[in-house]
Design a protein that fits this description.
Elements lengths: L1 H4 L3 E5 L4 H12 L3 E5 L3 H10 L6 E3 L10 H12 L4 E4 L14 H29 L2 E6 L12 H21 L4 E8 L6 H4 L13 H4 L4 H13 L4 E4 L4 H9 L1 H8 L6
Parallel strand pairs: 1-2, 1-4, 2-3, 4-5, 5-6, 6-7
Helix pairs in contact: 2-9, 4-5, 5-6, 10-11
Length: about 260
């Protein structure tokens, strides 16, 4: 796997913690050049200093919802080594609130970060990849991009939107020799539930037991990178929750009867 990433230039958004941080460490060990982005400059510097080869790593602060500056940020990422071989769209935020109790501004914020911010970065880097006639785009979706559950209405909507966009994009740019990999994680032991937004937009500040029992970020990063190296189209990494994806697909009525009694976790 390490040979697949050695000396590749890889841009990771949401790189200051969780999955993005774990991916940065594994890719640095593999000898990649890294561009690390998020809004948290101090945390990005911490991640950079903990990378195996900090000198091959650029800290590039970026708010994916600052749409007016997306092209400028993308050009800075390209200028680091003159190219971007792999883009990993990982920035995201979750939700823990009933739809009826969630302010519309919160729905919009989640969509801006998870969907519009994600595709804005992709659209900014895509002309560069098309010009080079090579590249690989990875999007971090979720098993909730394949099903809807209570307390996650906006989050599920944003991930469903990503699935549709990147399925279409994959077909459109195949002739340009550019691959698209959609990764659908289940629970990973990160701060996703702690940082999730409640209905009024404030942080949840609670680590759910389901998240605490999920994949270790390092373990998840290793699995994800194996799939990326193989240029898989779509891949699921989930434990119990994967059964919900298949049940929703094969028997939606049974799935609905089960999920309507879902309790917030």
């Amino acid at each position: 796997m390490q040979k697949a990433f050695k000396d590749k230039v890889i841009w990771i958004t949401g790189a200051s913690s969780g999955i993005g941080e774990a991916l940065a460490y594994e890719l640095s060990k593999a000898g990649a050049y890294l561009v690390l982005s998020s809004r948290e400059i101090t945390e990005l510097e911490r991640v950079r200093s903990n990378c195996s080869v900090p000198d091959k790593t650029l800290v590039l602060p970026c708010d994916v919802t600052d749409f007016d500056n997306t092209d400028t940020i993308a050009q800075k990422a390209i200028d680091f080594q003159g190219r971007i071989d792999l883009l990993i769209n990982n920035a995201g935020i979750s939700q823990r609130a009933l739809a009826q109790e969630t302010k519309l501004a919160v729905d919009q914020q989640i969509m801006n970060v998870n969907y519009f911010g994600n595709i804005a970065i992709t659209k900014a880097i895509l002309p560069h990849m098309i010009e080079r006639q090579q590249g690989h785009i990875v999007v971090m979706s979720s098993v909730l991009g394949k099903m809807g559950v209570p307390y996650r209405s906006a989050y599920c909507a944003s991930k469903h939107a990503l699935q549709g966009f990147y399925d279409a994009l994959r077909a459109e740019i195949h002739k340009e020799n550019i691959d698209v990999t959609t990764i659908c994680p289940g629970y990973v032991r990160t701060n996703v539930t702690k940082n999730a937004l409640k209905g009024d937009g404030t942080p949840n500040n609670f680590v759910a037991s389901s998240t605490a029992s999920g994949y270790n970020p390092k373990e998840f990063a290793e699995m994800a990178l194996r799939a990326i190296a193989k240029r898989r189209k779509e891949v699921y990494f989930a434990k119990r929750e994967l059964r919900g994806v298949y049940l929703n697909r094969l028997s939606p009525n049974i799935f609905f009867r089960l999920i309507r009694n879902y309790k917030l976790k």
